[in-house]
Amino acid sequence: MAARSNSSDGGVWRRGGDHWILPIEGQLVTQLRFDYGLTFLFEEGLDVRVEQAFVLHRAGDEDLLMDPEGDHELLAPVLRLGRATVMGGLAFDDGRLELTFAEGSRLSVPSSDQYEAWQLNGPGGVLVVSVGAGALVTWGLGAQP
After folding, report:
1. Distance CA 44, CA 28 (A)
2. For residues 110-121, average pLDDT
3. Which residue from 92, 99, 95 is spatially nearest to 46, judged by alpha carbons?
4. Is 5 exposed, middle or buried (0-12, 13-18, 19+ CB in 10 A)?
5. How far apart are CA 60 and CA 109, in angstroms?
6. How far is CA 43 from CA 52, 61, 76, 86, 116, in A?
7. pLDDT, position 11
8. 44-56 per-position pLDDT tens digit
9. What gap in Å lies between CA 6 and CA 23, rounded to an integer?
10. Maximum Cα interatomic distance, the chain, rounded to a whole number of Å
């Protein structure tokens, strides 16, 4: 099943078993924003906001558990993803998120039982949210998972 996004590039949101395949392959991270969450802004109008602890898997290095609500100095390894190219992104039906980057890093956000772990905003009113209780809710994609 596929749903066409309303973005100017005609990106297609595809299903892949238990997940949505995000139409962000090849996009550049143009900004990183740090507050009580971590927001990635991409060149074609998508943004992903992470609001809970996540794991940064770095190629050839140890995995790092990072918390955007904690000490921002400890989030310094995320800075290497500024201006990185995204190779792919998956939004799982159980609320997990995975973003893979060309330089070999992978960001994994688990779902939360209590609150929204992350959300994606896209062109044309697309919204994908990992809601409490480990579920994924989408708006603006057409057919639901």
Report:
1. 8
2. 94
3. 99
4. buried
5. 20
6. 24, 28, 22, 11, 24
7. 64
8. 999 999 999 999 9
9. 12
10. 42
